[in-house]
Amino acid sequence: MTASNQIIEIRGLRYMRGEHVIFDNLDIDIERGKITAIMGPSGTGKTTLLRLITGQLLPDRGQILVDGEDVPRLRTKDLYKLRHRMGMLFQNGALLTDLTVFENVAFPLREHTDLPESLIRHLVLMKLQAVGLRGTWNMMPGDLSGGMARRVALARAIIMDPQMIFYDEPFTGLDPISMGVIVRLIKMLNDTLNLTSIIVSHDVAEIATVADQSYLIAGGRVQARGTPEELEHSPSAQVRQFMKGLADGPVPFHYPGPDYREQLFGEEV
Amino acid sequence: MAVLRYLRYSIQDFIETFGASQLFLARLLAYSPRTLVRPRLVIHQIYSVGAGAVVLIAFSGFFVGLVMALQSYQSLSKFGATGEVGTLLALALFRELGPVITALLFVGRSGTQLASEIGLMRATDQLSGMQMMAVDPIRRIIVPRFLAGAISLPLLAMIFSAIGILGGYILVVLYLGVDPGAFWGQMRANVALVNDILNGFFKAIIFGGVVTMIALFEGYNAWPTAEGVGRATTRTVVISSITIFALDYILTAFMYRGI
């Protein structure tokens, strides 16, 4: 593997929230043109990691190279320039609620380009067609279901033809049909638009069907990396617990607290 | 000890918030000229925060005018000076009541709207989403609203004062029989354009900028939860109201110090 094959390189990343260490000495490589999944239990900071890669948060230490540029050290202007090459799908879509579906998808074009109205119309309708929602062009985001809102947000994320696209928990809270649609779209867009996709998720089954490469993060470190099958047969008990969804194991069922009997019958809570 | 520690944290928190709000204001002012070049966004917001408040302002102004006229008529009639009602009404409205009451109503009507709107945009990732699309939300969302507030409030204050005077005119001239010549004549003789009307207008511009900035700052920095948005809205009303009264005193003291 040559260095240029990696679009994102994270080295020695440390990030703290208050006194709490979220990541400690984290190393991650993301290959160009592939679908990489970043998995981990809730609360491990998967979304935080996306925000660090995209420069929305600053790390306490370490390097985050995106396409050769060190994100935390970029000036705002250069960071915004880099973001032209990034698309991001937020968990709830993050559509602008005062604009129609059409205007939402057209938003980046109107902000960054001086394209004529007819061309904007073509581009927006083409992207909406790609996610199967051309028919909703004049609806308001509030009228869409969760899955549809996410698809519109996906159309908006690819309108500027980015190189890489970040998905934040794209499968959470969807019915099986919407889930299937999103899985298909992620794969299709990655292959047809020659993208690099980074998916943050804890939905093991869906990830297994789309991801080329997976990272499992827990306790602020990378616990395992490999293809989804490799992770499933990992020798580590912690990895197996997560992949198989076991209630108890290295990650205990009970959140740490005082002694049960003492708290139940004691004077103070 | 605990009281002292609490006091220290409160003062530290106040200084931090105040400093952050001044930096926020500096950014708003720095981006304002460029936003005015793109007036469509500002006009849309003027319609939302300004035009939407006209009915409230007009009604309130009308009744404030009625009450003021009635009270002053009763007092002035003892001295046979009912012709002065118009002057008193116009001076009180243009100098003080117009800007101050309009600003308070504006906070309740539009300030809360802005704070909760921006707070919810924060809570639903719309602001982060915009940043990810390489669009600065301060420039695209906040500044047009700030300008709309600073433009709308003085106009609303003028509407408030004008309708207040109209209400007073209807009561004392048409109903209580004061001579219309005295009503308008005394008013025109005693109300100065610069000292009274423009000073009030200037006050309203300052109020508009400040209360809109407070609402936007609170919304922009709200915790992304239901409670956070609620708290931001409450803080907007409380901080804006106190600021309006304090600023009113300071501005009045400066404007009329030689008189």
Measured as a percent range, the helix fraction of chain B is over 70%
Number of helix segments of chain B? 9
Spans of chain B of at least 5 consecutive residues whose pLDDT stays below 50 are none
Envelope shape of chain A = globular
> Biggest β-sheet of chain B, characterized?
none
Alpha-beta classification of chain B: mainly alpha
Termini separation of chain A comes to 57 Å
Q: In total, how many beta strands of chain B?
A: 0
Uncertain regions spanning at least 5 consecutive residues of chain A: none
Element order of chain B: H for helix, E for strand: HHHHHHHHH
Please give a structural write-up:
The complex is a heterodimer of chains A (269) and B (259). Chain A is an alpha/beta fold and 269 residues long. Chain A is built from 10 helices and 10 strands. The termini of chain A are far apart. By secondary structure, chain B is mainly alpha-helical. Chain B contains 9 helices and no strands. In chain B, α4 crosses α7 and α8 runs antiparallel to α9. The mean pLDDT of chain B is 91. Chains A and B meet through α2, β6 and α3 of A and α5 of B.
Features:
heterodimer, A: 269 residues, alpha/beta, 6-stranded mixed sheet, 4-stranded antiparallel sheet, 10 helices, 36% helix, B: 259 residues, mainly alpha, 87% helix, 0% strand, elongated
Write the layout of secondary structure elements.
The complex is a heterodimer of chains A (269) and B (259).
Chain A: E1 6-17, E2 20-31, E3 35-39, H1 46-53, E4 61-66, E5 69-70, H2 76-83, E6 86-89, H3 101-112, H4 117-130, H5 146-157, E7 164-168, H6 176-192, E8 196-201, H7 204-210, E9 213-218, E10 221-226, H8 228-232, H9 237-244, H10 260-265
Parallel strand pairs in A: 3-8, 3-9, 6-7, 7-8
Antiparallel strand pairs in A: 1-2, 1-4, 4-5, 9-10
Helix pairs in contact in A: 3-4, 3-5, 4-5, 6-7
Chain B: H1 2-36, H2 39-50, H3 54-77, H4 85-123, H5 126-132, H6 137-175, H7 180-190, H8 193-220, H9 226-255
